[in-house]
Structures are given as C-alpha cells and as structure tokens.
Specification:
There is one protein chain. By secondary structure, this protein is an alpha+beta fold. It has one domain (about 5-95). It is built from 3 helices and 5 strands. A hairpin with a 7-residue loop joins β2 (about 45-50) and β3.
Length: about 110
C-alpha cells in the first residue's frame, strides 16, 4: 500500500469516528496544548512526511498538519498490525525547529 492510500484510509477512519487516541498521544496533546478536535478536523488537509509500512505494531504514517489556530504540528497515525481499524493516534507534537527545516517537513 502506498503512503497516499494509507493516509486516505486513516482519514476515512477518523471521519467515521473509528479512531482512538493512545495514552502517549493524549499526554503529548496536553503537553503541547493541542486540541483533540483540531487534530481530527484538519487531517484531510495534512501532508504526508514519512510512511512506515513495516512498523512493528502495524503500519504508521507521519503527517504535517496545520491547526485552526495556524500552528504547524506533526501527528503519527497507525493501524494495529493485522487489523483494518481503528486508526490510532500514536503521538502529536509541535516540531522542534532545531530538528526540522523551516517548513517542518524535512529532518535536519
């Protein structure tokens, strides 16, 4: 499966409310003051940065999203290995400018 198809699958699951937020992701959202609804509501316009089809717990994807408040953030979504749903928000964070290019798209 390509990164584009995997992202489309994640988006469909999120819009169908067939997703969950991991404990780690919930902590990360709180730490960076990101809204859960904003993460879900802006996923369709996200940009694929990296795709991990062979991730140990199931395929995953790193997305660049822009919140309704204009902040750029990254999310990592996955689907459990051997399953077709739910989509799982693995983490979400404000990218560190010291580790990413100015557009937060390419690792330094």
């Amino acid at each position: 499966m390509s990164a584009v198809k995997f992202k489309s699958r994640i988006v469909r699951l999120v819009f169908a409310a067939r997703y969950r937020i991991s404990d780690h992701a919930l902590d990360a959202l709180i730490d960076d003051e990101l809204e859960r609804a904003d993460v879900a509501d802006t996923i369709a316009e996200s940009e694929v940065l990296e795709f991990y089809p062979e991730f140990g717990k199931g395929p995953a994807i790193l997305l660049l999203q822009i919140g309704t408040d204009g902040r750029t953030f990254h999310t990592v979504w996955g689907i459990p290995k051997g399953a077709t749903e739910p989509a799982v928000l693995i983490t979400a964070y404000l990218p560190d400018p010291g580790k990413w290019d100015d557009a937060f798209k390419v690792r330094k």
